[in-house]
Amino acid sequence: MDSLASCFVQHGAPSQSFKLYSLQRRPSTSLLRRSVPIVRCAAAHASTAAKATSVDVVNGSGNGGGGGFDFETYLSAKAKAVHDALDVALRDLRCPASLSASMRYSVLAGGKRLRPALAIAACELAGGPAAAATPVACAVEMIHTASLIHDDMPCMDDDALRRGRPSNHVAFGEPTALLAGDALLALAFEHVARGSAAAGVPADRALRAVMELGSAAGVGGVAAGQVADMEAEGDPSVGLAALEYIHEHKTARLVEAAAVSGAIVGGAGDAEAERVRRYAHFLGLLVQVVDDVLDVTGTSEQLGKTAGKDAAAGKATYPRLLGLEGAHAYAGELVAKAEAELDGFDAAGAAPLRHLARFMAYRQH
User: Fold this and answer.
1) What whole-number distance in Å separates Cα of residue 79 and Cα of residue 111?
2) Alpha carbons 146 and 184: distance in angstroms, whole number
3) pLDDT digit string (tens) for 276-291?
């Protein structure tokens, strides 16, 4: 444990201040010795699109973390814009009504829309307009939703609850759910191609975004991670290296692709895109660490899905391998590493990404 973290994040109720404790740093890490601002998160609901969180920076420093940025409004606005765009993209599909209904059921079920917001924020950081990244943002959400539909099926995690209501296969049957996930995956790439052209994104940038998303969805990401995750179930010998492989692919890679694709269509240069990639890599791992912790500490009502499923399935998780305190500590390290990658960018432009990292760390569902 002493090799893990630079700070310890103590989770509590959404309205409390979070304390961060200094721990010994891993000797091999390149993380700069820096303080992570203490933040307070208050849960709030966006209208129809997503649940947002208000972030009040209590102890900001000169790293762009100061108080002038209204993250709640930003995230809520992006979530609603993406939700509306997804609604339009899923209208009048030329397919059986049951397939269309199944696709819309899961995509429009809500959620925080963090991956789409990340794509848009990265595009804006690179100097591009939000409209340029909206097709990418929608595609990321389609890919993510497809993975959730498949993940919930009896042949995978066999979960009957998703986002507080019956999983897709429970509502529509397994064959339709399987095909809805497949259709969403295909539609994602069609949508990037058509939408990017309509938004005036140069073809070479759109192609690079498609390549990035394709890698994240397939053998370079979600598919590989899911297989490794299933093969590791019930294996007590699974260690940290195997767990990192699973979550770098199953979770972090799509988060990374969302950010990098957004930056690319926004006009980022190679060096900028790689820094965004590193930021998002740490962010993606953070998502999984917090998910693992909440699976232990949260309730099904809070999470909108069945709590305690990982332990019941004998899965390797960060709390199981590190303990809850160790998992919290690792989350703190990942927040600091992600924020460190933003230090060279314009502070105002990086503010959404900085606050997004803190939101990921301190969320309660």
Assistant:
1) 9
2) 6
3) 999 999 999 999 999 9
Q: Which residues pair with 52 in a beta bridge?
A: 44
Using the structure block, give the residue that is written with the tokens 């995956």. Answer: 185
CA distance 111 to 287: 14
Of 107, 116, 120, nearest to 140 by C-alpha is 116
Tokens matching residue 4: 């893990």
DSSP 17: B
In sequence order, what are the beta bridge partners of 300?
A: none
Neighbours of 297 (CB within 10 A): 14
pLDDT, tens only, 303-352: 666 767 777 777 889 999 999 999 999 999 999 999 999 998 999 999 99
Average pLDDT over residues 347-364: 93
Alpha-carbon gap, residue 230 to 315, rounded angstroms:
8
- The structure tokens 């069609």 sit at 190
Dist CA 298 CA 97 (whole Å)? 36
In angstroms, the Cα distances linking 253 to 34, 72, 143 are: 26, 26, 12
Q: What is the pTM of this model?
A: 0.81
pLDDT for 126 beyond 60: yes
Cα distance between residue 55 and residue 10, in whole Å: 16
206-245 burial, b for 16+ CB within 10 Å, e for fewer? bebbbebbbebbeeebbbbbbebbeebeeeeebeeebbeb
Phi, psi for residue 128 in degrees, rounded to 5: -95, 160
**Token digits for 273?**
């895109």
> Which homologous superfamily is 83-362 in?
Farnesyl Diphosphate Synthase (1.10.600.10)
| Residue 126, amino acid | A
Cα–Cα distance for residue pair 298/306, rounded to 1 Å: 10
Domain residue ranges in the chain = 83-362
